[in-house]
Amino acid sequence: MSAKIIDGKEVAKSIKLSLKPRIAALKEKGIVPGLAAVLVGDNPASQTYVNSKAKACDRLGMYSEVIRQPASLSQEELVEIIESLNANPKIHGFLVQSPLPEQIDEPEITVHISPEKDVDGFHPFNVGQMLIGRGKLLPCTPHGIIKLLEYYDISTEGKEAVVVGRSNIVGKPVAALLMQKGKMANATVTIAHSRTSNLSEVCKRADILIAAIGRPNFISADMVKEGAVVIDVGINRVDDPDTEKGYRLVGDVDFEAVKEKASYITPVPGGVGPMTIAMLLSNTVTAAENIGS
Ligand code: GUN
Question: Which end of the chain is more exposed for a tag (fewer CB within 10 A), N or C?
């Protein structure tokens, strides 16, 4: 069997389309939803992400700002920027792009972001709300994964979901969402990671396998059950002298081999990636609605 390819671009487009009437309704009230991204240093991947976020806002008629700062920025200076964004009425949501330089204590930074404007859903208040099933601003990549499954009518009810990776951005929150009581949840969830014994056997139990471990082509076909749904969150740069840029992007899943075994699979690029941005825009509109009402 060759898997059906989950088209993240198509799903992201439908989500962005659904935001249009909400943005129009806000504009009727004189509110233009505004998103800011703080970029510290010159990490090339981060620059690409932040530019795509700004472009996506423009296309939907939303306001956006990118605040670029040198890699030498201090913790105190970053906190000041956050406080000014918390107070800025044009900005309804903002994020501080990861990774941050090592002098910055990232978890400490997150606490300064107003939970109402925390469109990443990383503030401990929003993490807690999500965990108890009351999240209003859900983390973008995990929520995007749920939306992909929903769009393709892939039930999670009673399924074995295995999440490989335990990051605060993806692994832990996607597991938390899938284990909730409710629609597009009710899964039996295992979190596996680099220290898991018998990782291969654990992965092989999965009806839904989510790879978020950050290692190129890590999930091989022999780790996947026949007919599993495979969601690849990885975005890894691997050297490729044959390409113009000298590298290409690959996921955490050995796509070519695994697609012969899975029932559904997300490609990289064009799978989960576009969903992260769509959900960020969606959270910004939600934040503007919440703040404006
Ligand atoms: N770096 C990689 N993914 C993300 C994300 O979702 N949010 C932020 N702020 N930084 C990231």
Answer: C
Once rounded to an integer, what is the mean pLDDT over residues 216-238?
98
Q: State in Å: Cα 1 to ligand 1 middle.
A: 35
- CB-based contacts of 136, cutoff 8 Å, min separation 6: 126, 129, 286, 290
Residue 82 CA: distances (Å) to CA of 88, 189, 249, 287: 10, 35, 32, 16
Atom 2 of ligand 1: nearest residue by CA position: 98
Distance CA 171, CA 163 (A): 6
Q: How far is the CA of 227 from the centre of ligand 1 (A)?
A: 31
160-164/208-211 β-pairing:
parallel
Distance 140 CA to ligand 1 centre (A): 9
Average pLDDT, the chain: 97
- Write out pLDDT tens, residues 146-155: 999 999 999 9
Catalytic residue among 16, 117, 118, 120: 120
- Domains recognised in the chain with CATH numbers: 30-114 (3.40.50.10860), 140-273 (3.40.50.720)
Classify residue 115 by its DSSP letter: G
